[in-house]
């Protein structure tokens, strides 16, 4: 009986002692928008180099930054995905916790499409029209005060728009996509209306009466909805529009069509840049970080003819890519000015 | 020195020390006994006596040290901790070894030690409840520091939009105050639960009556596995089925009547949750109905009632407390159900009577708040804990009522099953 | 009528009452039939959706192996073929060639994996393959170069962003590791608690508190255990996120009540005469429990534990909160590596847009159900075999 107990306890000890000193698996956290692209590269990385596949977790941009900046120890992530540039406060937190050597890389662009069933043909909307359709409060007829949004059909907002019931499926408040949409469409459009007074240029409350329906991450369901409810619109990332191009098309916003070229050139008005940040201090301890980063920034991945384009990434122009590649391969350290200017180039 | 090495040293010291203690304790007892002296306990019990009391100081010091570190009270350098624990163990080894003689009541000491160990194991369940309570309350209190409790419980507007921005550091005086009125969310949870109950209670109860009253033992043995399979299906699978098959079927069905149903309607969740709960109610009610004494049924038959009447007017009323208890347990199960609603229900808090619209529940919001893009100390994330706290309290209350009902049922019939 | 008035035992309402009784009985039968037919409908639907995933399309191609191919495998096939062959297969080609150096500078025939859109087309589902590509595939099929083979990738490879390359291997390993942790924690603690409560506990306040607690734990929604795992195991104890360790610890706490209750019942069913005989012979309580009561109650304890483990395997909600839905293509090799479990994999795949994941989700569900059914069957077999009538 004693021998058995001894053996059992020794075995369990051996099993528990699996915390490694140096790590051989890369840990990545961050934005759910960049997640599919980073996961794809992670898989490529394993196939091409034979290293262990990096673990990619979708925690959201904010959550990812928090984990990334929590410290420089090996139990913190090595990379973080972000659907926006790192903020000054986050950079400070990083520095305070000992994470001082960060290199950033731009992955590409993500356009936010306003999609509808293809059976409707093409439709052109302006940011203001979108805003008026979705805002919680809209200016009254005389433009002086605010009233609760009364619009139920698109032609009530503008007679040139079709007589379709306003239904919009969009990201929930916990999504970074929603954050970008709020900033780029709602806030920008609210600048045009004096009725908002001191909230002009900052108004982004979206109506809660069922016209705007927060839809989760389940894309299948959303396509089903758009094809069944042909009057409805969906607000999602461009990659999703690409995936289902046979069933849905994107509205032309402010006169610009939602295509890859328009997004990467910056003409399409609702687009944002995607980033990934690396913790340089981990490069010595964690196996494969250098190769992974090199693979990610390669033309084959994020270039104009790269693979990620086929899964919906809008790549940057070749000149911009060359600059980013130079910065990444030189392990350029992120500085406070760079963060303030929202760039990862020196 | 790395963690790994420290663990190895700790256990590499603990186990051999205990082993040595056992061996020498037993050997000494054997030696004393062979001299012809009558000993209180058996030799191997003396062995365990030494071994256990050698291990005790080592483990205690180890635990105390770890807890002091975790609570941030005092961080003892790990190497010193391990060394200290092992040396304490060695001292204990020597001390208890010296105690091995005829008069030492080793058997009783070992019994008490084991009893203590079992008690500690039992306390883990108590600690778990406390753990859940603590983890939720702490963060929920954080939430209530900035949001009003009464609005949370009674307000009807859930618009955390701007809370997201506060957390993201982009709000200012111009943004509207985030509102956290959880009534639509509670309403969604209760509505879906009620729909599930409307399906599950009659079907489950009737199935239970069939199984306990009408079915022959052979038929019962054949049918029971099916119900157990139904009970064993994981909820994520139910959720997938609801989203994939049931919801589109409902939409198509109502389209025949010209009524437009949402794809993420509450009805599909209600139906699937009801099916999930049927075996629950069925097996619990089955037990309760079977335990109603036979002489009650015999009395009814003697008075000329037929079987259905006996069941309706005699058996069911007497089993009613147990049945109500099982229904309450099923309700609390439905309230806490997550996967089905995450996959098939919507995200929009919606206060409505229309089951064909999308609505959301407490559990969906908890999952959404903890897996989204925002900051951790954001009121939206903390709202998950506040919602979790309400969920905990409600299921606790329902459970207490249920247990008390069963207890009074037992007292009434002096039945000892369940 | 004469007959009726003469018959002393005639009750006028008997016909109605018997009718009502028949309806009542009919309703109970209907309920059972409803439940069983729902189960059958459900199983049929899942199997129908899932069995296509067990076969996969392969296309026969001829490739000349040389150094260029190792450098750029995507150039080894022509444009038409590139659109129908899986990128994952081409990607793995260099490593395959490296392990077979004798192939260098020869022409080899391979059965290459087709990409998922072509696969869906051949299975008769909706597909995004263009008309031209479809015609090309049909042509190849007529030449006998296209075949549906058994999908070993599904069982042998882990998750992937490329649908035709994805499988449940890493999820199964993750589930296995998590279950080992769960059993290792829950079984000893659960059985020890049951022994304490049944054999040793005095009738005092503390015992009452413990029993009430266990009842409460059984009724707490599973997602709250996830919150506990997040707040205490990850944030406080610092257990690595997404690891089988933290998943197993959380599930162990969830499984405790069931193990305790069933072990208590098993211990209670051992007749008092055995214990009393032991006392009569002068054994201590612990010796009686260890050598006589426990072995006899063990089958019942094992049955209860297996059933509780079967329930834990299917749990998803708490594991989502502790982070086990990351993209983990590699199977975990230790308890602190990131891992995913089978139900979490099902949940992730259910939300993927590509249609090819739909059949894989259903197939994974089939695997999970088969696993659960076998566990339950083992438990029932144990119960039947070792059932003792005292």
Question: Can you offer a commentary on this structure?
Answer:
The complex is a heterotrimer of chains A (346), B (418) and C (390). By secondary structure, chain A is an alpha/beta fold. Helices cover 38% and strands 17% of the residues of chain A. Chain B folds into 2 domains: 3-134, no CATH class; 179-413, MetI-like (MetI-like fold, Orthogonal Bundle). Chain B is built from 15 helices and 2 strands. Chain B has helices at residues 3-34, 43-70, 78-98, 106-146, 149-154, 161-168, 183-214, 217-232, 235-256, 266-290, 294-302, 307-335, 339-344, 362-370, 379-413; strands at 158-159, 179-180. Chain B has a two-stranded antiparallel ribbon with strand order 1-2. The model of chain B is unreliable at 164-176 (pLDDT under 50). With 390 residues, chain C is mainly α. Chain C has 3 domains: 12-51; 54-158, no CATH class; 169-386, MetI-like (MetI-like fold, Orthogonal Bundle). In chain C, 66% of the residues lie in helices and 6% in strands. Chain C is extended, with a radius of gyration of 30 Å. Chain C starts with a helix and ends with a helix. At the B-C interface, helix 4, helix 7, helix 8, helix 9 and helix 10 of B face helix 2, helix 9, helix 10, helix 11 and helix 12 of C.
Summarize, please:
The complex is a heterotrimer of chains A (346), B (418) and C (390). With 346 residues, chain A is α/β, with parallel strands linked by helices.
Measured by DSSP, the beta-strand proportion of chain B falls in under 5%
CATH architecture term of the largest domain in chain B: Orthogonal Bundle
Describe the global form of chain C.
extended
Alpha-carbon Rg of chain B, integer:
30 Å
Query: Strand order across the biggest sheet of chain C?
Result: 2-1-3
What would you report as the Rg of chain C, rounded to the nearest angstrom? 30 Å
Topology pattern of chain B, helix = H, strand = E: HHHHHEHEHHHHHHHHH
| Level-2 CATH architecture of the largest domain in chain C | Orthogonal Bundle
